[in-house]
Design a protein that fits this description.
Elements: E1 6-13, H1 18-26, E2 33-37, E3 58-65, H2 68-92, E4 101-105, H3 110-115, E5 121-123, E6 126-129, E7 142-145, H4 158-172, E8 186-189, H5 195-202, E9 208-212, H6 215-227, E10 234-238, E11 247-253, H7 256-261, H8 263-269, E12 270-282, H9 286-295, E13 298-306, E14 309-316
Parallel strand pairs: 6-7, 8-9, 8-11, 9-10, 11-12
Antiparallel strand pairs: 1-3, 1-4, 2-3, 5-6, 12-14, 13-14
Helix pairs in contact: 4-5, 8-9
């Protein structure tokens, strides 16, 4: 937690601009970005998951410690995004990129800010709930209690939902329960809040690990594992690829540019006969991402999407 509070960066754009905007904000906020409808949807009384409108404007947000250096960097980014919006609107055919807004959030208000925006969500067997909400679990539910803190991964972002859908598929196919009790287990690359790793463990994986390049994410993920009683079955490490040992199951919720850049390392992280679940990919870059991962030695098994985002399942050998 930052003693000086947090600087929230927020910008509204059309879905086709979301990945480009997210990448630019992530340069300042390595813990990741959040994306949600610019206008909160009405949730039916009998539904836990908000309806999805792929054409609705998206609000992209990021948070970083509120200090003079970050304020200056955010102001420079605002100018860069204004230039990008002008070019995108005229030369690239992208629409509706708004102005980057900056808001200071005092440290003592941080928890309250998150609580107002983090509902209980159901995605197949997986139920994501914050610590301050209650849920009457049904038989077979894999309940994950997540306090996102300031790390990416709340279940609200389409890319997180796509990755959770992939974990549901792996669970239904028996892949999580069949993991060997020794070895690497399931590995979550860019773990953020630890939501995917915790969900995999609650769905039946015996053990696993997560890695992230940001200490805030590492701290949040460790706290969430402890909150779910999973600390003895998983470890969270500050760092990145390559892995010391290849794993039978690897999940990576990263933007397309990182999937492409890290494709050889991601392929090396997957043991022979193992599988990679790749999410965070904007539709327009899906084919490019598939090509990079295929060139690194992986084979596409399945592809699914939500709105402008795509997830992939690939095998190694």
């Amino acid at each position: 937690m930052s003693d000086d509070g947090w600087l929230e960066l927020s910008i509204t754009c059309d879905p086709e601009s979301a990945e480009a905007i997210s990448e630019r904000l992530a340069r300042l906020a390595p813990a990741g970005t959040s994306a949600e409808p610019a206008v909160p949807p009405v949730i039916p009384a009998d539904a836990l998951t908000p309806p999805h409108d792929p054409s609705a404007p998206v609000r992209i947000r990021a948070w970083l410690p509120d200090n003079a250096a970050n304020q200056a960097a955010a102001a420079a980014l605002r100018d860069e995004l204004e230039r990008f919006a002008a070019i995108a609107g005229s030369g690239l055919g992208l629409r509706g990129i708004g102005e980057l807004a900056m808001r200071s959030i005092p440290a003592e208000e941080w928890a309250t800010t998150w609580r107002a925006e983090f509902p209980v969500l159901r995605l197949g067997r997986i139920v994501i709930r914050p610590p301050w909400s209650e849920h009457a679990a049904e038989l077979g539910d894999a309940v994950v209690v997540i306090d996102p803190g300031q790390a990416f991964g709340t279940g609200l972002h389409p890319t997180t939902r796509l990755a959770l859908a992939g974990l549901n598929r792996w669970a239904d196919a028996g892949l999580l329960a069949a993991l060997p009790r020794d070895g690497a287990g399931i590995v979550d690359v860019g773990t953020g809040s630890g939501i995917l790793l915790a969900a995999a463990l609650q769905l039946g994986a015996s053990h696993g690990s997560g890695i992230d390049i940001d200490q805030l994410a590492v701290d949040a993920a460790r706290g969430n594992l402890e909150r779910n009683g999973l600390s003895a079955r998983a470890t969270i490490t500050l760092g990145s690829l390559p892995l010391a040992h290849a794993a039978p199951l690897v999940v990576a919720n990263l933007v397309a540019a990182l999937h492409i850049q890290l494709a050889p390392l991601l392929a090396a992280a997957v043991a022979p006969g193992g599988r990679l679940l790749a999410s965070g990919i904007f539709t327009a870059r899906a084919d490019e991402t598939i090509a990079a991962l295929s060139a690194a030695g992986l084979t596409l098994v399945e592809r699914w999407g939500e709105g402008e985002w795509v997830a992939l399942e690939l095998t190694h050998g």
